[in-house]
TrEMBL record:
Pfam families: Asparaginase_2
Domain of life: Eukaryota
Name of the protein described by the UniProt record: beta-aspartyl-peptidase
Sorted UniProt keywords: Autocatalytic cleavage, Hydrolase, Protease
Gene3D superfamilies hit by this protein: (Glycosyl)asparaginase (3.60.20.30)
Gene label: LOC110418176
Subunit and partners: Heterotetramer of two alpha and two beta chains arranged as a dimer of alpha/beta heterodimers.
UniProt: substrate binding residues: R215, I216, G217, D218, T237, G238, K239, G240
E.C. code: 3.4.19.5
Family annotation (SUPFAM superfamilies): N-terminal nucleophile aminohydrolases (Ntn hydrolases)
Species whose genome carries this gene: Herrania umbratica
Disulfide bond recorded as keyword: no
Top EC class of this enzyme: hydrolase
GO biological process: proteolysis
């Protein structure tokens, strides 16, 4: 038993030929965020503080699909969402439809701690953020050139596209270019457990490229993209609609509890129930286990445990 942390920067059809200018900044971002989380756990911060801190760092990184770097809706706007949950108390907070809040995850925590509710969205969530003094900016802050290009590609192909879909080659017929890459999405998330078995989970995203205005995915839905209880903490990434249908995050905890199996077995079982190419997750247990399974081509991920183990990876690896 000891502390453990895991985080992800999204799962999807991440090509093995991913150019270094797209791969290296994300790997560096994962390494930095993992170090931030480890330092916080070593300083005996509560896991709820740790996961919020790490997800804020991921949101502020323009190469991940959350906060600055969020993908664009069909109207070229940003609509961010986030969720945070405490395992021991099952207290949680969630937000959707944000266009000016710098750190959606901190607004989710404020909803959890400062309101009688769990979930606020769109204008009401934006107004609450301003009322609480959270940092807000002009929506243009979140829009990156890379995401303007992604939206253009998706609209040319007349599709809803995921963050890590490979660029469409002009000479390739559009139908041939879509492939299974459409089935995933980039999201960021973090789960942590401390030496006393306290657990927390946090997830944040910009959603799908070219999504309909007003679309809500799995990230802010308790039990779908985000969940924590006394047994484990889970943050999922992938095709939101399928993660919602599969109640992925809650199912990991349920399989652990009702089947009496380990975190690794439970998570592998749940990921296996989702059609291939659609989901990944990171999870930790109250006893310090960590697992990061996915059925997509890859998942930007990192983890560390108190006994000195650490991993930063994108594609399949023997130590996964």
């Amino acid at each position: 038993m000891g502390w453990a942390i895991a985080l992800h920067g999204g799962a999807g059809d991440i090509p093995l030929s991913l150019p270094s200018d797209r791969r290296l900044p994300r790997e560096a971002g994962l390494r930095h965020c993992l170090d931030v989380g480890i330092a916080a756990l070593k300083a005996h911060k509560h896991p709820l503080d740790v996961v919020e801190l790490v997800v804020r760092e991921l949101e502020n990184h323009p190469h991940f699909n959350a906060g600055k770097g969020s993908v664009l809706t069909t109207s070229g706007t940003v609509e961010m969402e986030a969720c945070i949950m405490d395992g021991k108390t099952k207290k949680c907070g969630a937000v959707s439809g944000l266009s000016t809040v710098v750190n959606a995850i901190s607004l989710a925590r404020t909803v959890m701690e400062k309101t009688p509710h769990i979930y606020l969205a769109f204008d009401g969530a934006e107004a609450f953020a301003r009322e609480q003094g959270l940092e807000t900016v002009d929506p243009s802050y979140f829009v990156t050139p890379e995401n303007i290009e992604r939206l253009k590609q998706a609209q040319e192909a007349n599709r809803v596209q995921i963050d890590y879909t490979q660029p469409i080659q002009k000479e390739v017929k559009k139908d041939d270019a879509i492939g299974d890459g459409d089935s995933q999405i980039g999201t960021v998330g973090c789960v942590a457990v401390d030496n006393e078995g306290n657990l927390a989970s946090a997830t944040s995203t910009g959603g799908l490229v070219n999504k309909m205005v007003g679309r809500i995915g799995d990230t802010p839905i308790i039990g779908a993209g985000t969940y924590a209880n006394h047994l484990c903490a889970v943050s999922a990434t992938g095709k939101g609609e399928l993660i919602i249908r599969g109640t992925v995050a809650r199912d990991v905890a349920a399989v652990m509890e009702f089947k009496g199996v380990s975190l690794k077995e439970a998570a592998a079982y749940v990921v296996g129930q989702v059609p291939p190419g659609n989901v990944g997750l990171v999870a930790v247990s109250s006893t310090g286990e960590v697992t990061m399974p996915f059925n997509t081509t890859g998942m930007f991920r990192a983890c560390a445990t108190e006994d000195g183990y650490s991993e930063i990876a994108i594609w399949d690896s023997p130590s996964k």
